[in-house]
Write a structure and sequence with these properties.
Order of helices and strands: EEEEHEEEEHE
Shape: globular
Number of helices: 2
Structural class: alpha+beta
CATH class: Alpha Beta
CATH superfamily: Protein of unknown function (DUF1491)
Mean pLDDT: 84
Distance between the termini: 23 Å
Strand order of the largest sheet: 5-9-6-7-8
């Protein structure tokens, strides 16, 4: 098995190998930059299996946040913790939320993308 893949175990057997978080995040940044957006890794987490947060800066104080998690079948899904909240101070709310989450989960990766069209370049 290629070393870039992690083995993941669940009750009842082994699931499909997963690509290391470090590789997935690097590819995400390159994909955004290749499409003309500014993207950077602002916080590095666990290189093998850290959670990923993508903050998309759209305009002054306007931003969106996407968190990658797993569904009940173990498939990667993206969710928005502030899906229905679009206040003027959304960027500040996201920053506070990320600060709290990283204090709980030090393995979390944070990617920031600046794109006027609001594209997150999710898988």
């Amino acid at each position: 098995m290629h070393p870039a893949f992690n083995r993941c175990y669940r009750t009842g057997g082994m699931t499909e190998p997963r690509l290391k978080t470090e590789i997935r995040v690097s590819a995400h940044v390159r994909r955004a930059q290749g499409a003309g957006a500014f993207a950077t890794i602002v916080r590095r987490g666990d290189p093998d299996a850290g959670a990923v947060a993508v903050k998309v800066y759209i305009a002054k104080d306007k931003a969106r946040l996407f968190i990658q998690s797993r569904d009940l079948d173990g498939n990667a899904v993206w969710r928005e913790p502030f899906e229905e909240d679009e206040g003027a101070d959304m960027e500040m709310k996201i920053d506070v939320w990320l600060e709290k989450e990283t204090s709980i989960d030090p393995d979390m990766w944070i990617v920031e993308i600046e794109d006027r069209e609001g594209r997150a370049f999710l898988d």
